[in-house]
Amino acid sequence: MLDLDQLRTFVAIAECGSFTRAAETVHKTQSAVSMQMRRLEERIGRPIFVRDGRMSRLTENGERLLHYARRLVQLNDETLAAFDESEVSGFVRLGTPDDYADRFLPEILARFSRSNPKAEVNVVCAPTPNLFDLVAEGELDVAIVTHVQKKGRKGADVIRREPLLWVASARHAVENESPLPLALGRPDCDWRRAAQAALAAGNRESRLLYSSWNSTAVGAAVLAGLAVSVLPESALRSGMRVLCEADGFPKLPDCEIGVLRSWRQNTRVTEALVEHIISSLDNLSVPQAAE
């Protein structure tokens, strides 16, 4: 049988990036952590770490094990929480991009508060890349993010897919300008990359007029008729118009929205909030844009 305590320590090392920081996280001495990893390698029968200068990094087998270790640790915590019949209370830290906060949080927080009146939620709004870092560093318990999967980084569980759409003002014809003015997120925004790649593939000349992490600022540029942007279907606002292939705009990839959970703090209050997030997004109605 695999030892769950060893697996939890292994995940901590992968998340923290070093044996020393992981030891602090799991409240063990560094020698105890090293001993646990030697025993885990013996049980697996494969090396899971390799020296890289003064640092240790995961081998290919270590990357494979990490996937299963996270699932096993999470399932263990969920199982214990399922049999805890005490009233849900406590403190949970939730992260979300500001555009998701506008659309999703009113429903999520209302449902959660009614079901768990003794629980407290602290909300942090930040871009998706920052939220991944905050969860990995133990600063957040759960986050709603645009789904991304990178090697060595835990991916989010996808809970909603919806179209990513080109949008413009319903009262202006800015989409006919050349070069096409754009209002998009910062350089590492997946939606920005998708939009610019699609336009480049179609040889459509464009210029970035506004760039911001703040969805309200981007939406303001669109509604004022100053630029075209891209938004997921659920983020459409009154006064926006969807542009399609008939208007000369290529189809974009779907937007995947996910929930990212911290392995450090998997409590009943966290699991209860995750359940409400999933339920709320499953039943979310989509606003109508102008024709």
TrEMBL record:
Keywords: DNA-binding, Transcription, Transcription regulation. It comes from the Bacteria. The keyword Transcription applies. The keyword Plastid does not apply. Residues 2-59 form the HTH lysR-type domain. Gene3D superfamilies: Periplasmic binding protein-like II (3.40.190.10), Winged helix-like DNA-binding domain superfamily/Winged helix DNA-binding domain (1.10.10.10). SUPFAM superfamilies: Periplasmic binding protein-like II (SSF53850), Winged helix' DNA-binding domain (SSF46785). PANTHER family: HTH-TYPE TRANSCRIPTIONAL REGULATOR LRHA-RELATED, TRANSCRIPTIONAL REGULATOR. Belongs to the LysR transcriptional regulatory family. This is LysR family transcriptional regulator.
